[in-house]
Design a protein that fits this description.
- This protein is of the alpha/beta class.
- It has 2 domains: 237 residues, 3-Layer(aba) Sandwich (Aspartate Aminotransferase, domain 2), CATH 3.40.640.10; 156 residues, Aspartate Aminotransferase, domain 1 (Alpha-Beta Complex), CATH 3.90.1150.10.
- 39% of the residues lie in helices and 12% in strands.
- It has 13 helices and 11 strands.
- The strands form 3 sheets. It has a 7-stranded mixed beta sheet, with helices on both faces.
- Helix 4 links the parallel strand 2 and strand 3.
- The protein is globular.
């Protein structure tokens, strides 16, 4: 049996008829741009995030761009964020003409290291951009306190964290703007690209709404250069069907994560992700296998980095990649998030971050592996994942010790 890292088939089996009806209703309405489907979704999503305003847009990337533009961020400004994230986090900063400034991440949470954050603030800093990576929320009380001390705006990257919360408040409700992605693999996924921004300020919401439609406050009046970044009505229809299931889906993810924690706890040398009780939404379950441990279970003379890791100068990644390949041979399909940190991407070479500049981030990129997790993952599938890991790590380690 092949265990996928993610699957939508079961959702389609459950919701297929309702999805068909919702999409067909939009097609028959003729309201493909704007309309009631989008208005209904924006209202429902704002309520879910516990904010007054939500504005749909084309993608999570565009959500970040709209947020930064709406806050007036542009050339000469700096935005502090983490390099251990998807490229779009920094790409959006560059897209508005600002400069991303990278801070290393905490080795336990994998999130931006708040102990290092204030040292990166300069007179040019305008925004703190925390990433709620893999569904684990950043300590937003502490981060917002730092922002308040320095008069900075906060834009939350919630792309992987729909349904997450910190101290009982949903992510996306803490900062000036929350930015969400509805890419199909996210906790709340559409049938293609989609995104949203959330905020408490009505004027800011209106500014971002206008930017998403070519800087147009009313038909054929353009007060600034904007974007074509509307959420499609068909995507809104799909999201309207799925949104009521978000809470139960997150609860299932938490149950799956808890089983992984329990069943893998005995494996020596494998670092399991740290939970945030009632706050983590587990978009990914990411284990970390330190190189010193991985080298003791793989064949050092035969393992080679995967194609993903081969472009990055961390030879230690070959052992993690060996484990990934062996799991795949056992029918367990995993993903590496992320093999190359943003600050070491060729596109950001000009910023001057050399090898070792963000040591924790770079080490994580050579050691992390994401196990299969989605709400419909069966017990049998999860047991296959656990068996595969236990056999590879436990038995090989026993043989090495002997």
């Amino acid at each position: 049996m092949q265990v996928p890292p993610f699957s939508l088939r079961e959702q389609l089996d459950l919701l297929g008829e309702e999805l068909d009806q919702a999409v067909l209703q939009v097609l028959r309405s003729g309201q493909y741009i704007g309309g009631t489907a989008i208005a209904n979704f924006e209202a429902a999503f704002a309520e879910a995030v516990q904010v007054p305003h939500a504005v749909g847009c084309n993608s999570g990337t565009d959500a970040l761009i709209l947020a930064l533009r709406g806050l007036g961020i542009g050339p000469g400004d700096e935005v502090i964020t983490a390099s251990f994230s998807f490229f779009a986090t920094a790409e959006a900063v560059s897209a508005v003409g600002a400069t991303p400034v990278f801070v290393d991440v905490d080795p336990v949470s994998y999130l931006i290291d708040l102990n290092q954050l204030e040292a990166a603030i300069t007179p040019a800093t305008k925004v703190l951009l925390p990433v709620h990576l893999f569904g684990r929320p950043v300590d937003m009380e502490r981060l917002c306190a730092i922002a308040d001390r320095h008069g900075l705006k906060v834009v939350e990257d919630c792309a992987q964290a729909t349904g997450s919360s910190w101290a009982g408040r949903p992510v996306g409700s803490w900062g000036d703007v929350g930015c969400f992605s509805f890419f199909p693999t996210k906790n709340l996924g559409g049938a293609g690209d989609g995104g949203a921004v959330t905020c408490r300020d009505g004027a800011l919401a209106q500014a971002m709404r206008e930017l998403a439609v070519h800087g147009m406050p009313r038909r054929y009046l353009h007060t600034q250069l904007g974007y074509n970044s509307r959420l499609d009505a068909i995507q809104a229809a799909v999201l309207n069907v799925k949104l009521p299931h978000l809470v139960s889906w997150v609860e299932r993810r938490r149950a799956i994560a808890a089983r992984y924690q329990e069943q893998l706890a005995h494996l020596d040398g494998i670092h399991l992700p740290v939970d945030v009780p009632n706050g983590h939404s587990w978009n990914q379950f990411v284990v970390r296998i330190p190189h010193s441990r991985a080298a003791s279970i793989c064949c050092d003379t035969s393992c080679t980095p995967s194609a993903d890791s081969a472009n990055f100068d961390l030879p230690e990644a070959c052992c993690r990649d060996w484990l990934k390949q062996q799991l795949q041979a056992a029918g367990v399909n995993t993903i590496i998030y992320y093999p190359i940190p943003i600050h070491r991407q060729p596109a950001y070479e000009h910023l001057g971050y050399g090898p070792g500049s963000l040591p924790v981030t770079e080490r994580l990129c050579s050691e992390v592996l994401s196990l299969p997790i989605f709400p419909e993952l069966t017990l049998e599938q999860q047991h296959q994942v656990v068996r595969g890991l236990c056999q590879l790590i436990g038995e090989n380690a026993t043989a090495m010790a002997a």
